[in-house]
Write a sequence for this structure.
């Protein structure tokens, strides 16, 4: 299958980078095609704004969904958005690889979602193309993420609450909203206090997880 | 009191802009001091990266919390971060004004959170300064937000789920995490299909809400 890894971490020696690299090698070894959108390395523009629309359809009233619909229809979205859309179209599986910051995605990844999963490309609300009818149906998506906190902090009843609950805006209201099937999330907790042996064990665990996909 | 409005919408004729403007006038009329961080107008840098740290304490291993702690301690964070921190210190009440995109904040606002609410400034995990002990305790924060969907879509059992649940990563894991007290969220639903009368009614409702704060 074709796999697109959307990777968001500012540091190439991070555990997130190692997880991304491990996924590339494991998936390629298994005969899959892999592309990586390394958002930091690409200096991906995080902020959805009027520059995203090369020929605004309405200069008096800027409506994000309206401009996105027109931009998709007319091929007048900014080139970096279109390039990402091509990769998404190509992919059978998307992997979102990122550290949990503030119980959510880093801004650069949120910007990728805001800009790339445009109305008319990923969903079409006017035509009811969402959830099971979402325009990206047939694809799967996996969240692979790391947290500094121990798992008990991010559990039901823990101080932060259940992390799976916090990431619902990504796995349900984004991935499933666009019609994609969610693969169970891969979590690594306690990042930053692990020694090399523990890091390697987590990379091995991810490798096994990916081999069973 | 001193009020800081952190405002994130790309279009000055949006309902979010009108809500922000209404808050400024109502709060000033009531004798409060108001500052606005208009993130789009400021072209606020959304992406936390190594350029945020003018004198990295560790060039071999980039740790976000470690660099933030050192940057706060030594006054070596990027000037735009320090300017926002000064406003936060000054404020008794923070108002987050933004449209809900993907059941969450726009990337530019997430970037403000990632960069400004730094370790050592807003929380200090090593010293247990979080939640009730958070470094921003004594302040309050209000989420004022708009959604295109009708409220029943964003309710328990609705297709998107309870919006208050999705925003928990902001009101609990961000605002309360830093020690601030949460003021009940102000929601406007059905944005984009309202006529002028309905828009005005929502602005009046916000005005009344703010007067009772």
């Amino acid at each position: 299958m074709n796999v697109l890894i959307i990777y968001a971490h500012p540091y190439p020696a991070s555990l997130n980078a190692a997880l991304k690299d491990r996924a590339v090698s494991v998936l390629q070894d298994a005969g899959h095609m892999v592309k990586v959108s390394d958002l930091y390395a690409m200096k991906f523009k995080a902020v959805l704004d009027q520059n995203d629309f090369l020929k605004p359809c309405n200069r008096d009233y800027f409506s994000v969904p309206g401009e996105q619909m027109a931009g998709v229809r007319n091929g007048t979205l900014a080139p970096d958005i279109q390039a990402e859309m091509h990769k998404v179209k190509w992919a059978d599986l998307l992997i979102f690889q990122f550290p949990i910051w503030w119980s959510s995605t880093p801004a650069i990844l949120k910007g990728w979602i805001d800009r790339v999963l445009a109305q008319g490309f990923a969903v079409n609300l006017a035509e009811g193309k969402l959830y099971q009818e979402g325009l990206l149906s047939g694809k799967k998506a996996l969240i692979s993420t790391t947290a500094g906190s121990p798992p008990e902090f991010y559990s039901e009843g823990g101080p932060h609450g259940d992390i799976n609950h916090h990431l619902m805006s990504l796995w349900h209201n984004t991935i499933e909203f666009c019609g994609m099937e969610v693969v169970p999330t891969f979590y690594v907790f306690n990042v930053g206090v692990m020694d090399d042996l523990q890091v390697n064990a987590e990379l091995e665990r991810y490798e096994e997880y990916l081999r069973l996909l």
Observations:
- Chain B has a mean pLDDT of 96.
